[in-house]
Amino acid sequence: MADLYLKALESERKALWATCRLKGLPKGTPERLRIAELDEQIAAHKARK
Description:
This protein has about 50 residues and is mostly helical. About 80% of the residues lie in helices and about 0% in strands. The protein starts with a helix and ends with a helix.
């Protein structure tokens, strides 16, 4: 069965990363901080399995 929560997290991360790459955003911007937060949530979710 598909893990919809994990897919949603990864989808949001990919979209934010694409935005950051397109705009050339430096570290410390809200988008980059959200990506780091999503990485932690994805890792925690995968560790629970």
